[in-house]
């Protein structure tokens, strides 16, 4: 594992002539925002042979971002560029179909803010103290002595504001606010960005929310709230995966709840879950034994189980996390 500093990351980019940029499957605002901000940074460095690719489509609410229309699918991707940069994720297993395109031993720079002990790739700039990977790109501009364009700032700000929940999550810190101020100073319309990212709900998402609220149940004397969606719910609402984004927050936001969980059946024996936690329990640690990951306050996992088996297993793990002194 080769951990490097920001200057070494810039040197690696300066030393390459062609680039492929990618991020994780089921991309969120930070994945798309930081990916596009990074493309803008490379262009500011004078690079022009740059291809952005993502295994899954850009969510509708981020399609307006500058450069989003240039993001390719794995099927549209030719040869990997001289330097592959993976942002907002540190494991090839999480980049989906893009991973199959990566030649063995190919130079790969990983830029990420998730805690990862054994990252993929050859060069790693991984710092969990960042609230979002988009902050890393903002720092790249500063370290390289380059002014950040309004377009790049818009992309980076979307990554930062969505990964901090509008600067409400526990990962919000002084650094995050300082970076936000620099980005806003480029002339961003913060109110419009917030409206696009947080206030617009599709009809399909609204229909799913009905189910989530109606099925919400409680455990651990009200400290845990959980709900679920099954395959039929998504089909009936003609909903996509992105229509489930953020629905878990409605369980976590209930008074007295420390852990909110949303189970989503994606196949008869596959369940995707999202978990949100307040201080006192680490969601990423709870889900780590299940192959999941993320942040202390927000994490997810995919389980090869039916819905009921997944529910029992996860609630048992949350019980252990909430009661560490009672564990054997």
Describe the structure.
α2 runs antiparallel to α4. Helices cover 35% and strands 17% of the residues. It contains eleven helices and eleven strands. It folds into two domains: 6-198, inorganic pyrophosphatase (n-terminal core) (Alpha-Beta Complex), CATH 3.90.1640; 203-326, Roll (Diaminopimelate Epimerase, Chain A, domain 1), CATH 3.10.310. Strands 6-7-8-9-11-10 form a six-stranded mixed sheet. The longest helix has 16 residues, at 29-44. With 328 residues, the protein is of the alpha/beta class.
Low-confidence stretches: none
- Identify the CATH homologous superfamily of the largest domain: inorganic pyrophosphatase (n-terminal core)
CATH architecture level-2 label of the largest domain: Alpha-Beta Complex
CATH class of the largest domain: Alpha Beta
Q: How large is the share of residues in beta strands?
A: 15-25%
Task: Give structural attributes.
single chain, 328 residues, alpha/beta, inorganic pyrophosphatase (n-terminal core), Diaminopimelate Epimerase, Chain A, domain 1, six-stranded mixed β-sheet, five-stranded parallel β-sheet, 11 helices
């Amino acid at each position: 594992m080769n951990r490097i500093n920001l200057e070494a990351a810039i040197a690696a980019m300066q030393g390459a002539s062609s680039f492929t940029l990618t991020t994780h499957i089921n991309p969120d605002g930070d994945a798309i925002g930081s990916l596009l901000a990074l493309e803008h940074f490379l262009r500011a460095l004078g690079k022009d042979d740059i291809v952005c690719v993502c295994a899954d489509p850009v969510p509708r609410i981020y399609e307006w971002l500058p450069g989003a229309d240039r993001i390719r699918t794995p099927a549209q991707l030719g040869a990997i560029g001289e330097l592959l940069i993976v942002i907002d994720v540190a494991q090839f297993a999480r980049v989906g179909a893009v991973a199959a395109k990566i030649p063995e031993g190919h130079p790969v720079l990983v830029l990420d803010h998730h805690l990862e002990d054994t990252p993929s790739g050859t060069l790693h700039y991984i710092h969990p103290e960042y609230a979002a990977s988009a902050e890393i790109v903002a720092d790249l501009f500063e370290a390289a002595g380059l002014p950040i364009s309004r377009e790049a700032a818009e992309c980076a700000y979307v990554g930062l504001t969505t990964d901090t929940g509008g600067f409400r999550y526990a990962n919000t810190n002084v650094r995050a606010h300082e970076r936000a101020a620099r980005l806003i100073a480029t002339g961003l319309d913060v109110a419009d960005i917030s409206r696009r990212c947080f206030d617009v709900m599709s009809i399909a998402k609204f229909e799913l929310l009905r189910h989530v609220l109606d099925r919400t149940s409680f455990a651990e004397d009200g400290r845990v709230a959980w709900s679920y969606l099954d395959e039929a719910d998504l089909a009936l609402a003609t909903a996509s995966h992105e229509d489930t984004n953020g629905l878990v927050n409605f369980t976590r936001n209930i008074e007295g709840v420390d852990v909110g969980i949303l189970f989503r059946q994606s196949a008869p024996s596959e369940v995707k879950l999202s978990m949100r936690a307040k201080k006192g329990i680490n969601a990423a640690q709870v889900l780590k034994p299940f192959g999941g990951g993320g942040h202390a306050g927000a994490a997810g996992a995919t389980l090869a189980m039916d819905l009921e088996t997944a529910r029992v297993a996860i609630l048992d793990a949350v019980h252990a996390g909430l009661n560490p002194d009672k564990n054997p």
